[in-house]
Amino acid sequence: MRKDNRHVDASLVSMIFVVLFVSNWQKCYAQIDSVFYNLQDFNYLTAYTEANYAAYPSIIEHGHTADYQKLKENVKDSLMCRAWGIEQAVSEYAYWFSHYFDAHYYADLPYFWHVCKKRDIPDYSHFIDYHPQPVSKKIDKTTWLIRVPSCAGEFPTNAWFAESVNMFFSSKCKNLILDIRGNSGGNDAIWEPLLPLMVDHQARFPEQYFFRNTYDNRFHPEMPDWMKEQLEKVKDGKPFELWGDDEEGDEDIPSHDAGIHIAIIIDRKTASAAETILRVARNYSDNKRVTLYGKENSAGCAATGNLLPFRLPHSRIQVFYPTTVSSAFLHLDGIQSASGIEPNVRIELPYPNQLTDNTDSWVLWVSKDMKKKRD
Fold first, then answer.
1. CA angle, 256 as apex, 251 and 257 as ends, to 5°?
2. What end-to-end distance do the CA atoms of the chain give, in Å?
3. Is the pLDDT confidence value at 254 over 70?
4. Beta bridge partners of 324
């Protein structure tokens, strides 16, 4: 006699249906949950940026509100339909500021650096052995080379750079090549030994620096001690407080050998504190005596500074933003883009085979060009 298993089969089908339903519901819920958290992170990102990023008010006041709102809507739409994850969303948002206005604003993410910023910065490692090293040496009878790959104070140290400048003076060379290709910044203090040699006159255009005086900026938990000391010198209460002034000490123009010529070699990775020496050259130097050389402009973050980080609540993604901004950026009728500082002389040579501790083809070409201008 055949046993009827129809009720068993029906129960099994029901159990399978329940398992599949629960599994699909959990997946669906997880997807909805991830979108919800991503949107919360993005809302936090935009709110914190708008409230504290030093360059933001000027960007908006100078006619970019519609573009910015469109950016936010596009990113939110991409998050809602799950076309983008939170890392791509944060990167594209940060890149809008970094590309158009201020390369100091960035997301600490591989997607930001390896996808977004590759649109702006050549991948030198694809066609150069690109590992610039500190160098201080005489390259011919009249020319000294100092290569400074970082302003962070470790590679090289500030003491090393000061000694290199002294070595140049002792060499009796009349031409100095300062090679800052690949220098992404650090601290302006490294340049102090060279500044007296750079200044020929008072500032062509006065420039001041302002701190965006918000609660989050003033009481930031990761603010370094030197910034806290600086804050003690400024008033409290205005949206922007005077942070520093390039005109300080302008009345005392240092004396130096006017026969010394300086060439500064840059690339698209020359950024931040490395761009400070370029601003000094543009604002205080005779451009016939101090000349900028390069194939591309510098990185484009000379108008802001004093970066601090914040983290998004769920993803814990870290974003860096400047708390200070220059008067040139803050008050000009039209904001210049983050296209960087343009060299006086465009180097039309191919990229050298390597940029390490060698005297490469660009250095030799610049040396010849400096001699030619003297003749």
1. 145
2. 116
3. no
4. 211, 305
